[in-house]
Amino acid sequence: MDEVLKMRINELARKKRQEGLTSEEQEEQARLYRIYIDEIKDQLKCALDKAGIKPKE
């Protein structure tokens, strides 16, 4: 995962807790969270494939 992406996610989360986000920042945060979650899912699928674990059919 790109370090800049992680830093921006954390920056927005910190700002949300401290002062709140604008609607544009909320949309950006949602988009970044989706990217992050999709990358984690891909990593998990790859790890399971390498371990020989296949999904049920």
Strand content: under 5%
Individual helix count: 2
Largest sheet: none
Low-confidence stretches: none
The value of Rg in angstroms is 15 Å
The secondary structure category is mainly alpha
Count of beta strands = 0
Describe the structure.
It is a single chain. This protein has 57 residues and is an all-alpha fold. The protein has one domain (3-50). The protein has two helices and no strands. Helix 1 crosses helix 2 (23-50). The model has no long low-confidence stretch (mean pLDDT 94).
Give the SSE layout.
Layout: H1 3-18, H2 23-50
Helix pairs in contact: 1-2
List keywords for this structure.
57 residues; 77% helix; mainly alpha
Brief write-up:
The chain has 57 residues and is mostly helical. It has helices at 3-18, 23-50.
